[in-house]
């Protein structure tokens, strides 16, 4: 018996499924007698291009045509039916094997002869993208100005490979994959007329496997029918034949995740492996299953429309499974599984990958259900010694700030260990105060933050900076003096102590790397927040420059922009504040380098400059209170700062001065440095404020 897809090959446009956007206009052109001389049918394989080309030929050559509904009785119609032997006037050429210039020439020469019997001589070129350049060139003339009686239909999966000069002379009809619901209805129809009983859910599997191709789906159904004993196809049999993981196993595994039942999870895994199932396929199926649950959870009672062919019973089970997890958990599980899938190709020990994945999923489910207790499992051991944030307790640590990064992130175990380290002990004693807190402790990328606000980013900023530090120390040094100051959709404004500092974001990550440093920061932000951002730059007022222990959110809500001085003072005042900021940040290094700095100076530097890497650590060290003394003292210190900054800058022979010098730029520098002008670049950067996209 012929294959299903041949026996059910459509003979009219009405029978073609899922391509109404193509068949509709074609039929209209036929009935209004406006058919073109050349057509290009493109689209994925198995979705009806060649079939439609034959139908079109049949319509054009029907004795009662041209018509959109071939009569089916005239000699042409009979010959071109699916059981017919083919017509002399309809020439099908497989361009894959007849792609050369000779074939094209032959075609061209033959085409000039009138049709043997019917209205048109029709050439169907299948796999037209295989025709060579010379072949197309040889065809060009005849496609361009064909004789009245000649029609061309090109069918291809890759229209871009068809010579543009040819393509532009055709009417292009793009075919599509058939949507699942339509395909399912069609398969149901076919199996009914084949007289087979099919258990619910089987066809949905076939549709999924067929991937939208009618031919592939029919072939699979054919195979199932052929392999079934008594014209009945069971779900179990279909799953086995199509290579799907048995549903029972998937349900078992998901239940194990929900109940955090490690033994059951690993036993199910073992039975998967024992059954000879491909581990990769199992992961794929699990991912698809989690996806189904996610969709069901999101759509509730509307779900059945999205799952054509799935029985109510199954939907009920999935709905129950959906109730076991939070949306965030499901999303995070999905991501974990998807990551595993990506890493599985070419892996020599797929089982190991699989087991690791299950272990992580168990921990993840555990962590997000139980809060702190579970989370601590996920978190690498905290190493407070690494923590620049300890500076709050030990102001002297400031001096080591430049050295700290060398010892810090390099020895850290996980990407976020340092940002979260101090909060871990707290978190494991007390329940998390908010989602924010609980997510921050996750060592792996978190779900996109529910509350995507500036505060949320500020709260994670120190962790983000630490993550960057593990990749690139120099970037860490600069970023530790920054704080986010505004968030507008996906545009994050990062406040830098000095505008010139922001330049580092544009610099390449390394020699030969086309990627800018900004990408490192972007990735780190994504790791901590699940959001991808774009950057703009702002320059911080000196009092905004991060201070250890200060409450970040309440301290610098204002974006510094030219002309909008937040402190209310005049332009000159604002400017001097800015220069103080520059000086202060410079003093960070100089304070470290020079023991000669007086005690008063070093104190002022430490607190006032507040620009050490640790400063951005916001809420985890100090309880969040709107009235934060740190903010005040920073404000005050920045005013009493001049001595520190002046001495610092002179030590450093770089930078500028503090508030007492009411102007900035060259005069300031001359004043401070005795006429030696250094740092023009910085100044020109500072004068050009505004925002810069990175
Ligand atoms: Zn006919």
From TrEMBL:
It is an enzyme of class 2 (transferase). Keywords: ATP-binding, DNA replication, DNA-directed DNA polymerase, Metal-binding, Nucleotide-binding, Nucleotidyltransferase, Transferase, Zinc. One of its GO terms (cellular component) is DNA polymerase III complex. The keyword Cytoplasm does not apply. Residues 400-420, 563-596 have a biased composition (Low complexity). GO terms for biological process: DNA-templated DNA replication. It holds the Pfam family DNA_pol3_gamma3. InterPro entries: AAA+_ATPase, DNA_pol3_clamp-load_cplx_C, DNA_pol_III_gamma-3, DNA_pol_III_sug/sutau_N, DNA_Rep/Repair_Clamp_Loader, HLD_clamp_pol_III_gamma_tau, P-loop_NTPase. Its EC number is 2.7.7.7. Residues 372-437, 544-669 are annotated as: Disordered. It catalyses: DNA(n) + a 2'-deoxyribonucleoside 5'-triphosphate = DNA(n+1) + diphosphate. GO terms for molecular function: ATP binding; DNA binding; DNA-directed DNA polymerase activity; metal ion binding. DNA polymerase III contains a core (composed of alpha, epsilon and theta chains) that associates with a tau subunit. This core dimerizes to form the POLIII' complex. PolIII' associates with the gamma complex (composed of gamma, delta, delta', psi and chi chains) and with the beta chain to form the complete DNA polymerase III complex. NCBIfam families: dnaX_nterm. Belongs to the DnaX/STICHEL family. DNA polymerase III is a complex, multichain enzyme responsible for most of the replicative synthesis in bacteria. This DNA polymerase also exhibits 3' to 5' exonuclease activity. This is DNA polymerase III subunit gamma/tau. It comes from Pontimonas salivibrio. The gene is dnaX.
């Amino acid at each position: 018996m012929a294959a299903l897809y041949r026996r059910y090959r459509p003979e009219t446009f009405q029978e073609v499924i899922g391509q109404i956007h193509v068949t509709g206009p074609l039929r209209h052109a036929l009935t209004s007698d406006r058919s073109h001389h050349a057509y290009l049918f493109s689209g994925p394989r198995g979705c009806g291009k060649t079939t439609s080309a034959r139908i079109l030929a049949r319509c054009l050559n029907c004795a009662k045509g041209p018509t959109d509904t071939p009569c089916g009785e005239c000699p042409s119609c009979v010959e071109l039916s699916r059981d017919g032997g083919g017509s002399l006037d309809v020439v099908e050429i497989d361009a894959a094997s007849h792609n050369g210039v000779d074939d094209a020439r032959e075609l061209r020469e033959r085409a000039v002869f009138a049709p043997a019997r019917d209205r048109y001589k029709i050439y169907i070129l299948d796999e037209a993208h295989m025709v060579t350049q010379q072949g197309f060139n040889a065809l060009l003339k005849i496609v361009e100005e064909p004789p009245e009686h000649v029609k061309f239909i090109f069918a291809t999966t890759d229209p871009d490979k068809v010579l543009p000069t040819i393509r532009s002379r055709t009417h292009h009809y793009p075919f599509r994959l058939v949507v699942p619901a339509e395909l399912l209805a069609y398969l149901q129809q076919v199996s009914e007329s084949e007289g087979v009983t099919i258990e619910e859910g089987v066809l949905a599997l076939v549709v999924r496997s067929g991937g939208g191709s009618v031919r592939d789906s029919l072939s699979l159904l054919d195979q199932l029918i052929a392999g079934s004993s008594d014209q009945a196809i069971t779900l179990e049999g279909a799953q086995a034949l199509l290579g799907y993981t048995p549903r029972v196993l998937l349900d078992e595994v998901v239940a194990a995740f929900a109940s955090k039942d490690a033994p059951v999870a690993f036993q199910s895994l073992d039975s998967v492996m024992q059954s000879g199932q491909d581990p990769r396929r199992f992961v794929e199926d699990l991912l698809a299953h989690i996806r189904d649950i996610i969709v069901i959870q999101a759509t509730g009672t509307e779900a059945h429309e999205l799952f054509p062919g799935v029985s109510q019973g199954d939907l009920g089970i999935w709905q129950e499974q959906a109730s076991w997890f939070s949306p965030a958990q499901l999303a995070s599980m999905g991501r974990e599984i998807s990551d595993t899938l990506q890493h599985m190709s070419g892996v020599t020990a797929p089982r190991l990958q699989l087991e690791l994945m299950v272990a992580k999923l168990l921990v993840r489910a555990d962590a997000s259900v139980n809060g702190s207790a579970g989370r601590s499992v996920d978190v690498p051991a905290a190493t407070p010694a690494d923590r620049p944030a300890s500076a709050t307790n030990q102001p002297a640590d400031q001096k080591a700030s430049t050295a700290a990064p060398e010892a810090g992130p390099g020895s850290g175990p996980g990407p976020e260990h340092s940002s979260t380290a101090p909060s871990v002990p707290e978190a494991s004693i007390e329940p998390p105060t908010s989602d924010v807190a609980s997510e921050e402790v996750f060592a792996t990328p978190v779900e996109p933050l529910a509350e995507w606000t500036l505060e949320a980013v500020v709260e994670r900023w120190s962790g983000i900076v630490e993550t960057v530090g593990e990749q690139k120390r120099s970037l860490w040094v600069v970023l530790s003096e920054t704080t986010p100051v505004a968030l507008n959709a996906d545009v994050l404004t990062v406040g830098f102590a000095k505008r010139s500092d922001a330049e580092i974001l544009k610099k390449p990550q390394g020699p030969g790397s086309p990627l800018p440093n900004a990408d490192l920061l972007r990735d780190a932000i994504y790791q901590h927040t699940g959001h991808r951002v774009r950057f703009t730059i702002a320059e911080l007022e000196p009092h905004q420059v991060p201070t250890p222990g200060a409450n970040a959110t309440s301290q610098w809500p204002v974006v510094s922009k030219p002309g909008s001085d937040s402190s209310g003072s005049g332009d000159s005042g604002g400017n001097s504040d800015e220069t103080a900021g520059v000086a202060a940040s410079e003093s960070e290094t100089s304070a470290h380098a020079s023991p000669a700095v007086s005690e008063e100076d070093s104190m002022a530097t430490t607190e006032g400059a507040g620009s050490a890497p640790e400063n951005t650590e916001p809420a985890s060290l100090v309880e969040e209170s709107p009235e934060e003394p740190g903010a005040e003292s920073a404000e005050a210190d920045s005013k009493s700062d001049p001595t520190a900054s002046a001495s610092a800058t002179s030590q450093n022979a770089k930078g500028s001065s503090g508030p007492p010098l009411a102007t900035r730029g060259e005069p300031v520098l001359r004043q401070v440095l005795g006429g030696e002008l250094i740092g023009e670049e910085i100044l020109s950067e500072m004068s050009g404020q505004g925002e810069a996209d990175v």
